[in-house]
UniProtKB/TrEMBL annotation:
Lineage of producing organism: Bacteria, Bacillati, Bacillota, Bacilli, Bacillales
Annotated TM spans: 25-44, 87-111, 131-156, 204-229, 249-272
UniProt superkingdom: Bacteria
Protein's recorded name: ABC transporter permease
Species name: Paenibacillus filicis
ABC transmembrane type-1 domain mapped to chain residues: 83-272
Family: Belongs to the binding-protein-dependent transport system permease family.
Keyword Transport carried by entry: yes
């Protein structure tokens, strides 16, 4: 029989107190940001790319809550649309990275042998390279743009996922219930899909949640350096880059998008830490019977 205390069991069916302390605050803030981003076409008072040089660098006012940038574009409207770009792109990158790491890690951990040796040699090679420098090299080689940003983030992220998945698969494949299923004639695909993958959902959800926050920071960093999303895209990193020349006179132009990046990333990390704590409690033998 499949033990209930296997690490990484499904998050469903267990009580998780979300609205408590910093985690509850993080959930509410993140939900508000997501809602505002989704409703940006209705909430934004102006077109985020509408240029109006007659109102260039306008101060904070009732007409422009956060003023305007160097091209007269409404900063508040660009902030609302910037959340859509950054968060959607971060989720897409994380999803593809998790899928790639899941496939490679499962193949490596389940079959082992020479396949595992070859895959781990490649993984070690990628992990031996400085992450940010490698990301910059890929983005710089491919040229600035969304496509190069997408590729750079995936290439530098999948080894971590694959190594975590490999460790979980190697641990789960030795469980008694897996040996029993195998002795009954179950095929490899059945064992992997029906019994191994469901038991890895928990750790992958935690790792994926934390990764989304890191990807948002990476997107902003590359856009700030001119290697990510390009103007006039209403992206938070692009907004920070555009505001550099006027930081002393108009600090809010840089502080507003920078604050959004930091707050969203921090909230996502708080939620990820909470999920990890819940999984640690559920995998603990003395607490699994409570």
């Amino acid at each position: 029989m499949k033990p209930e205390s296997v690490s990484g069991s499904s998050l469903t069916g267990h009580r998780i107190t979300w609205l408590k302390g910093t985690t509850g605050m993080a959930v509410l803030i993140l939900a508000a940001v997501l809602l505002c981003s989704i409703l940006a076409p209705w909430l934004a008072p102006y077109d985020p790319n509408q240029v109006n040089m007659t109102e260039r660098l306008a101060p904070l006012s009732a007409h422009h809550l956060l003023g305007t940038d160097t091209l007269g574009r409404d900063v508040f409207s660009r902030l609302l649309y910037g959340g859509r770009v950054s968060i959607v792109l971060a989720i897409a990158v994380t999803a593809v990275t998790m899928l790639l790491g899941l496939v490679i890690g499962t193949l490596s951990g389940y079959w082992g042998g020479w396949a595992d040796d070859v895959i781990q040699a490649v993984v070690s090679m990628f992990q031996g390279l400085p992450g940010l420098a490698f990301m910059l090299a890929i983005a710089g080689t491919l040229g600035p743009g969304t496509k190069s940003l997408f590729i750079a983030l995936i290439v530098t992220s999948w080894p971590d996922f694959s190594r975590v998945v490999r460790g979980e698969v190697m641990k789960l494949r030795e469980e008694a219930y897996v040996e029993g299923i195998r002795s009954l004639g179950a095929g490899h695909t059945y064992i992997i899909v029906r019994h191994l993958l469901p038991n890895m959902i928990g750790p992958l959800v935690v790792l994926g949640t934390i990764r989304v926050g890191r990807v948002i920071l990476s997107i902003a960093s590359l856009s700030f350096l001119g290697l990510g999303l390009q103007p006039p895209a209403p992206d938070w990193g692009v907004m920070v880059n555009d505001a550099r020349a006027h930081f002393r006179s108009y600090p809010h132009l840089m502080l507003a998008p920078g604050l959004c990046i930091g707050v969203v990333s921090l909230c996502i990390n708080w939620i990820g830490d909470h999920l990890r704590d819940q999984l640690d409690k559920k995998s603990s033998p003395d607490k699994s019977l409570l």
